[in-house]
Records
---
Amino acid sequence: MKSTGLNINFQENAWWFIIANDQILLQPQGDFIPYGNLDDLPLSAELVINKIKLGVYQSSPCYLVTLPEQHDLGFGEYDDLRFLLGRVDDLLFEMAGRAFQIKLFYQTHQYCGQCGEKMHPINWEIAMKCYHCEHRCYPRISPCIIVGIRKENKILLALHRRHQKSNNPIYTVLAGFVEAGETLETCIHREVYEEAHIRVKNIEYVASQPWPFPHSLMMGYIAEYDSGDIKIDQKELCSADWYEMNNLPNVPNHGTLARQLINKLVNQSGQQTAPLSME
């Protein structure tokens, strides 16, 4: 990543990821992310002087602009990043997630964790460096697994404490962070047993998804039930049970890896009824 500093091209069409107070500025139509050049958008040179290039989407550059507070720029409204899930192209959502992770990285690495001195951004890569002790930091990425488990024509779904809502509870598959020294497969076996007290077999990799809440990389799998009776970890879960694939409760929205795993298990079973959509 490289900051453009004073080198601002006012005629350049670009995607603008404008973040303030952990929310992103969204337009009410189209792809939601503001697009255009600085002459078309009410963005002053002062606001974008330290814009950061995130990458390229649809042949146009993408820039992160971090504001100290939510300025009324005369267009759009600020909203949570989750609003974009399932509403925009996956690549555009990933770019928005990248914007949030880069912002968090610079925000939380102002001082050296080794000697305590001030850190400084490096202008040719995404990194911060302490010139006192030469310690260098890169954005944190936390690997985790997420697994859909099948038992005949049923799926194991759990109500996580973080997902509990009195008016619209969301039931999803099991997930957990990879610990030091673990393989992904070892993590699956451990997390499933810790959270539900069952064993699984025939683990199959499906896909991965960056998950910027705040900085995870999720590796998605499906597996088959092997043995054991459900006994939940009450610190993590409110409940867990086997649900018939043609009669599922509210599940995660399209755009999530959890939904992709659930859909894959339903399709493999040959059931006719698709999972319910989350509102």
---
Amino acid sequence: MSGVGAPAVEANLDGLVGPTHNYAGLSPGNLASQTHFGALSNPRAAVLQGLAKMKLLADLGVPQFVLPPHDRPDFAFLRSLGFGGSDAQVNEAAWKTAPLLAGAAWSASAMWAANAATVTPSADSADGRVHLSAANLVANLHRSLEHPQTAAQLRTIFPDESHFAVHDALPSQPHLGDEGAANHVRLCAEHGAPGVNLFAYGRDAYVPWTHPFPARQTREASEAVARRHGAHRPVFLRQNPAAIAAGAFHNDVVCVGARTCLFYHQTAFEDPAAMRDKVRRAADGLFEPQFVEVSEAELPLADAIASYLFNSMLIEVPGEDRLVLIAPMDVAENPLAHAVAERIAASNGPIGRVQYVDVRESMRNGGGPACLRLRVVLTPAQLTAANPGYRLTDALHRRLTAWAEHHYRDRLTPADLIDPAMIRESREAMNALDDLLSRPAST
């Protein structure tokens, strides 16, 4: 097992956008998803934008891994609902009689790797291993289909059980609704040092929820994940119902943290003062937390959600003494959000600069730079033990780019998914990807 406190880095595991990326409006409470329902998507641009972000991080010196898309459409799901015949017949019947179910079967939502799992690094776990729990995502039908394949992929990427423990999802029922790392933040003095694990939840499972948009994460699910991981110093914080009602369906829409810094909107938590007190007490003797709060007066919540300022990635770049905020281009184009980002970078605080990335295709479905990645803290031994075939190198980036340009459409609407040709195209793309990722790793 890995030694606690060993030198470590924070690696990113990014979801590779799938060939069926479309705007089917399947997520209530996700304003971007609802706004762009039925619009024309560009799967090729989406996957290339995601690959460009991965390449940027790898070039900055951050270890970068690829999480493959899921096989879509999910015919096992549709057949379990009574649709029969050939795959083409199943697809046609589903779209004709139950289009919402068909849309769920075709969804490429596994691209948002922040929802893939919750991660506890070895410095914080009871047995000194990295623990990863696949999220059940029961709040939305299309996402609830993901966790079996997600768990299998995580075991492929992190196969050595002496270093890694990959857990199946919690039982799939609403009392244990779990949305993964989108509702989790880890703070620490150094990545390999003991830290504080912040678990944000929307509701208590046994208390009626009367707000218009769902609170997807339950306290009971957060506690169960922390318990099964043996997570040290967990802090459970309730999301502000007003933020959920405004469209912050995950806490990472209004909050991001790294190292000792927690960057958040004033409305992110139900009781910000109590949050700060709990974090300080949990961190006592380890580090002094740095809170970077943005007020409603400076940046209205609506602008924070529209721009996804807080769905930026907050990363440690080798050779830089302050954190870097990897923000979506939408922040640069929103005057209020841009002013906040630039003010913070110009201050003497923990965030030293902002770098903007174009992930517009993901943004239109409600996923910014932080949604596309799962953070996994790894010691040098754990980094070596991870499957090298999934680590992004210049060579793998070139191969994935060529693969996407060959297999992905540049125009797609949900109606196009009725076309039997899309079944064939999706399978061909996934078969080619399996072959590509199984090749020996090269630099």
---
Amino acid sequence: MLNASDLIAEYEKTGTLEALPIGHFIDGSFTQPAHNGTMESYDPGRGKAFARFTAGTEEDVDEAVRSSKSAFEASWRDVAPVERARILQRASALILDNQDLLAVVETLDSGKPLQEAYGDVRGAARTFEYYAGACDKLQGDSFPLGPDYIGYTIHEPVGVTAHIIPWNFPISTAARGFAPALAAGCTVVAKPAEQTPFTALLLARLLHDAGLPAGVCNVVTGTGTAVGAPLTRHSDIDHITFTGSVQTGRTVMKTAADDVTRVVLELGGKSPVVVLKDCDKEQALNGVLGAIFENAGQICSAGSRLVIERSIHDEFVGELVSRTRALQLGHGLAKPDVGPVNSAEHLAKIEGFLERAKARGANILTGGSVTSDPATGNGWFFEPTIVDAVPVKDELAQEEIFGPVLTIQIADDADDALRIANDCQYGLVAGIYTSDFAKAHQLARKIDAGQIYINEYFAGGIEVPFGGNKKSGFGREKGLEGLLSYCKTKSIAARIA
């Protein structure tokens, strides 16, 4: 197996990696289409290209969907659940065996610190392990219809599923869609983000190596226009799982309506972290920092709004600013506290939010500007930023910045914190820090969000259903509820007397 130190040394010497896949992964192997078009993939930490990958077309999508439909109808839906479980379990082990390669590639493609990439890879392995255990436990119900009848339900795989994977958590999001779909007996056609194509391709190969039949998991790379759009409108797609922006999610939903295709949408977030005066302050400080600065704030569920009681505001925020200023920026392979943002275009978007805020007279306590890797002067970086006392209707409090920018909103008490937390178009997750457990659960019931964290942000794991309310989307991934997203329930009633 390739180890991280050798991979990093190879990259430092050559500017690329020999182990990167070439072509789409279709029907059990990497294939290079006749048109042979390619695109560049960029290392955000350097701000320069490090590899090329295949730029797919509608014809490539057609080939991948045909392959997956054939594999579904000919074999995969009828494979015994216990055998599906064994394949997914072997895939989990192979991910761990190859974690150095996957983590280094994830860092180069997305920019995130290497230690975070390792966490994502291990989480992907755990996802396949979890759904391996669920394959042979997907059982229906029976109905009490009386002595003359028998009634029951069965869960059938929905069919060929399309997965549109975002650039911020490429392998994590791929795994949380692929694993339950495969466990349910569905086949997969995936389109990774054009900024981060490689780990989805590597994952598809590992699944095949684990015993997945050819065609059951296909990956086509390219742009949203050339690959994503024809995939989501394809008449042989039975389900779409999309993670991305609200704007693109609307388009996917409208497209799916033409063929009445099922969808799960995980869209944006502007999640509040409610910190009350009776919290464990050290616990809350660590939680708030991680909630917004992990992956440079490029997380749909990032805790991007700190809603804090007025009585502890000054002391808490003062310490928070001090710790934020101490964070070290750098290239992801150097394992910094905060890495770059994913692209020059996204960096400009973040900068635009802050420049408009400055023009409005925003109280920026720290950060607020574009910067670079202190070691090289290169890369797409934005300073870890805290903006204080932001009005509820300000765009910094309402719009998803998707960067290392924390907005502070001041509440008079817990009831006021609840009002502020809910005064937003999004409802993905929320955090609560308080030592009053009854109060925590009262707030958890009343905050309109799909998932609530109490006294630890990002608590839980693959076992916990995840998804949003309001403009954060609908449907749930992860947990057993995520498995049911890839099933259609059939009811059967029979007269037996």
